[in-house]
Amino acid sequence: MKTETFQWVLGIESSCDETAVAILHEGKTLAADLVASQIDLHQAYGGVVPELASRQHMEAINYLIDQAMKQAGITLQDLDGIVVSKGPGLVGALLVGISTAKALAYSLGIPFLGVNHMEGHIYANWLSHEDIAFPLLGLIVSGGHTALMVLEDHGRYRLLGQTRDDAAGEAYDKVARAMGLGYPGGSVIDRLAQKGQAGSYALPRVQLKDDPWGFSFSGLKTAVLNLLNQKALKGEDVNKADLAAAFQEKVTATLTEKTLAAAKAHGISSILLAGGVAANSGLRQKMTAACQEAGMKLYLPHLKYCTDNAAMIACAGYYRLGAGLRDDLTLNAEPALGTAE
Q1: Is residue 1's pLDDT more than 50?
Q2: Which of 78, 86, 142, 264 could pair with 74 in a Cys bridge, judged by C-beta atoms 3.0 to 4.6 Å apart?
Q3: Are residues 26 and 112 in the same domain?
């Protein structure tokens, strides 16, 4: 994908419970990168409450844009383009960002584009590395998606397989809730797993014989829930650190082994990890060790770009705007947007 130069691109992210704004200079330098998290608000409910998330986005977004302009040392009139997450995500939350982006683009008379949120996660790696070369085997793993993709070039992706049920991050959150660990579950289980022994509990791994590059984590999640229920009925205690370690071992082993097998099967020697679960220490360690052993190049995003942020949206949009892609004011939120769409 041939790119033209855009000097100043504003990125907006509001797909779930983080309101984020970033300003990217010439596709490489982050002049501003701001995130307003809602985790404290939603923790009391054990998960994200869509209506509350939308209200918080409305309260925060204009303030963040003003602060980003000050941080970058520019004005709205200096912007060359605006990009925003169009999906997947919560429809009300997405619409706050999209409506704001539309209004700004219309008033300033500049190009405007909606970006797939999951594509944004992929481009978090371009903010973290300077030597990325295609083709790549991408593992996109988050609370809503788990997918393997061949990344052939900017904007050219081929989906190999994805989860049939729970995404990896979703399974983490559900298991954490069942164990009484709170929300968000992924980071809590990750920390707890480092103190436990994975071999203390026998948990299953689901293999999809008819879908070599697909994933299924529902059975593993259900096995953990059944174990917890059985122990409770017998009045027996569960070692939460050991159970967290056993669960994490099964998830990360499945992700790592399938990713490397797919890379080898498609003759690709570079692997790219993306999404919120890319922050998981167990996955990063296992993937790093496996790639070193196989002689493959591994790209990991900086931890600060694993969670939802607007910097990755601005980066993904920069390449798409430069290729001449545009949206008009009819753009709508796409809450169920697929990983490769």
Answers
A1: no
A2: 78
A3: yes
